[in-house]
Write a structure and sequence with these properties.
With 442 residues, the protein is α/β, with parallel strands linked by helices. The protein is built from 12 helices and 21 strands. Strands 4, 14, 15, 16, 17, 18, 19, 20 and 21 form a 9-stranded mixed sheet that branches. It is globular and about 70 Å long. It binds pyridoxal-5'-phosphate.
């Protein structure tokens, strides 16, 4: 579903005009549609109906508590890649028994917290990691349920920075070596190998690489069982692409049909880890035009959102549709523009050479498909405040992450004792002390 539509020439999020949210919370801000999130989860769940599938939402795409809880209430599990994400999943109400812990660099401390929480599965990516997990689990008298993430050497055909399944990538264990690795795990007190996991990349818009990878995983499951390993889980990872406005993306139902065929007759529990497809098109970034500058060669639309708020265009050369929040006149003549932010970097752009209708200072723009890898990758570079996140449900909206204050931003720093002179008024050592009071050491 597309929850962002024009009504009476005003772009709405579900039943709320985006301009009204802009008045209430200021710009820029992210806005997510609860109905769109729910719709994506249901599309997955419906396509898996009749199978024993666990849909573990990959938190790294968008880890706002409101987003996670929306999925948790529908029955989703979570795919986490750090202790912070594990804590977020648990805090949002995802049962530990539905949490999968992935990632190439889990520390002992992270393993310990995950074991204590009683998570469903560890996806292990190297032999040193296996040995460490075995040790940590034994020291606690626990046994971790493990899937080995194999690297099937399949090129996902996506951007180089989000391709993960070829031999050149740091992820997983070479599938050819996997039988040996499972052999090493036999009869360990701290780990039990119960599954095979794979994840070949992100933003896949072609299903063929999945077909190739899943076929290899299927062969491996059969081989491991023949070797006597009790493998009863197949974790197919995530990576399904979305339409960013230009190229179409595969339907969730087609992707799930492919997964079901790959697992057919194996009697394995399927674990899916979708991230981007669950949230990407459920979010927009709303920004206000500060200036329009007509340069010698180009028109620059300078907005109050920047690369620190949405880094995808400059990091991945990503395309995002950009539309005006107030519908532009039908006879408006578009021309090329660079849509840029105020940051002192030439990489600070949201679009380059984009055909845009005439816009003026004060206009609101919506950058679409910004629900995934948007807010989670933002920073306060240039001492810009992290921007608020808003969720809409029908006619209601709520701020689900407020904009911090400048006091909070400055308050993150501490002066070392040798710089913190009593009476120094220029640099507050604590936010509570702003306002002309005399400051001592922290
Ligand atoms: C990033 C990641 C996902 C989710 O990827 P999307 O492209 O957002 O669907 C799933 N599993 C693992 C192991 C990941 O690293």
């Amino acid at each position: 579903m597309n929850p962002f539509v024009y009504r009476n020439d005003a772009l709405h999020a579900e039943d709320v005009p985006l301009a009204r949210i802009a008045e209430g919370v200021g710009t820029p801000f992210y806005c997510y549609s609860s109905a769109a999130l729910t719709g994506q989860y249901r599309a997955f769940a419906d396509a898996f109906r009749g199978t024993d599938a666990l849909i573990c939402y990959a938190l790294k795409a968008n880890s706002n508590q409101a987003v996670i809880r929306t999925f948790a209430q529908l029955g989703a599990g979570a795919d986490v890649v750090s202790e912070g994400e594990l804590r977020r999943a648990l805090a949002a109400g995802v049962p530990a028994g539905r949490i999968v812990f992935a990632g190439v660099g889990k520390t002992r401390a992270e393993m310990a917290v995950a074991l204590d929480s009683g998570i469903f599965q560890f996806n292990v990516e190297s032999e040193p990691e296996l040995d460490t997990l075995d040790e940590v689990a034994r020291s606690k008298g626990r046994r971790a349920q493990v899937a080995v993430r194999v690297n099937p050497d399949v090129d996902a055909g996506t951007h180089a920075k989000i391709t993960t399944g070829t031999k050149e990538n740091k992820f997983g264990i070479d599938i050819a070596r996997a039988p040996e690795v499972y052999e090493r795990m036999r009869n360990r007190a701290g780990i039990q190998a119960v599954g095979v996991a794979v994840h070949i990349g992100s933003q896949l818009t072609d299903l063929a690489p999945y077909r190739a990878a899943f076929a290899r995983v299927r062969d491996l499951v059969q081989r491991l069982r023949a070797d006597g390993h009790p493998i009863d889980r197949m974790d197919v990872g995530g990576g399904l692409g979305i339409a960013y406005g230009e190229d179409p993306a595969p339907a969730i139902s087609d992707y799930v049909a492919l997964v079901r065929r790959a697992a057919d007759g194996l009697g394995c529990r399927i674990i899916a880890e979708p991230g981007r497809v669950m949230v990407g098109n459920a979010g927009v970034l709303v920004t206000r035009v500060i200036y329009v500058k007509v340069g010698a060669a180009r028109r620059f639309v300078i907005c109050d959102a920047a690369m620190n708020d949405l880094i995808r265009p400059t990091l991945y050369e990503a395309y995002h549709d950009i539309v005006t929040v107030a519908a532009s006149a039908p006879d408006a003549v578009p021309s090329l523009a660079d849509v840029v932010g105020p940051i002192c970097e030439s990489g600070d752009f949201l679009a380059q050479g984009r055909s845009m209708p005439p816009v003026a200072a004060g206009d609101l723009l919506a950058i679409k498909s910004a629900g995934a890898y948007g807010a989670v990758m933002s920073s306060s570079y240039n001492s810009r405040l992290l921007i608020p996140e808003v969720m809409v449900a029908g006619g209601q909206f709520a701020v689900v992450r407020p904009r911090p204050s400048y006091e909070e931003l400055l308050g993150l720093d501490r002066l070392p004792p040798w710089l913190n002179e009593p009476g120094d008024r220029a640099i507050p050592s604590r936010p509570a002390m702003i306002g002309g009071r005399k400051m001592g050491a922290v």
